[in-house]
Amino acid sequence: TFWNILADADPAVERVNSALRFALRKPRPGKNGHKDSQGLWATDVDTIYQGTPRRPRLSGFRFSTAGNGVQWEVTAGAVMGMVHYQGKFGADAYPGGLNRYIEAARTSAKNLLSMYGGIPNTVLGGNYPAWQAFSAYQPVDPAYPGGSDTGLGWPYLRYLGTAPTAWVGLMLLHQADASEPVDHNANPYAAP
After folding, report:
1. Which terminus of the chain is more exposed, N or C, with fewer CB under 10 A?
2. Nearest 5°: CA angle at 8, between 6 and 10?
3. Does residue 44 contact residue 55 with C-beta atoms inside 8 Å?
4. How high does pLDDT run on average in the chain?
5. Sequence-ordered list of residues with C-beta below 8 angstroms from that of 21, at least 6 positions apart, any chain
6. What is the distance between the alpha carbons of residues 93 and 20, in angstroms, rounded to a whole number?
7. What is the pLDDT of residues 122-142, one digit of tens each?
8. What DSSP string describes the chain?
9. Is residue 63 exposed (0-12), middle (13-18) or buried (19+ Cβ within 10 Å)?
10. Cis omega before residue 53 (within 30°)?
11. Contacts of 152 (CB under 8 A, 6+ apart)
12. Rounded to whole angstroms, how far apart are CA atoms 70 and 116?
């Protein structure tokens, strides 16, 4: 959805709005800690971080409808896509607006950068065997489900990552906060 918006893949605002309506849904709880497949918006609690604030809540987007946990390169691309959408179609083109999602996700990513000096793949703890149990729908500690499950057969474990850090860097170059102009040169999907 969001990378398609950045690439101007669909010029029809009605179709883009339909995709956004789906992506911005918050999935409901499912079996053994899994979420249902209706939507991509998620909030994770970082239970491992030892600094202040304690147990920060961080919002962003799942990797897929079968995934679990916020995935930060997808989230950074989503912020860029929503900002691009507003520039192309207007701030009021999406019913109810996008600003609350943009600001929640962008603030979460900036907080992670301050907390860790880079962006972790996920804030959900656990190791590969925990993810194997989680992906097999076996009960696991919800704070340690084996990282963020992509829903596609592999997890993102809790380590600082090059890709999410690079995408957050692009997001900040694109627009670090709402008071700044958008730098369209930071959009990796823009036509040359």
Report:
1. C
2. 125
3. no
4. 95
5. none
6. 11
7. 999 999 999 999 999 998 988
8. -HHHHHTT----HHHHHHHHHHHTSPPPB-GGG-B-SS--EEEEE-SS--SSSSS-EEEEE-SSTT-BS--HHHHHHHHHHHHHHHHHH-TTSSTT-SHHHHHHHHHHHHHHHHHHSS-BS-S----HHHHHHHHTT----TT-SSSEE-SSS-EE-SSB-HHHHHHHHHHHHH-SSTTSPP-GGG-TTS--
9. buried
10. yes
11. 63, 64, 66, 67
12. 16
Q: Are 66 and 83 in contact (CB under 8 A)?
A: no
Calculate the alpha carbon distances from 70 to 82, 87, 126, 150 in Å: 17, 25, 15, 9
Pairing of strands 57-61, 41-45: antiparallel
The two structure tokens encoding residue 180? 């700044």
Token reading at 160: 């600082």
**CB contact at 8 A, 97 and 82:** no
Placement of tokens 């009960």 in the chain: 139
Read off the pTM. 0.95
* CA nearest neighbour of 101 among 28, 29, 20, 172: 20
Q: In this structure, what token pair is assigned to residue 77?
A: 């691309």
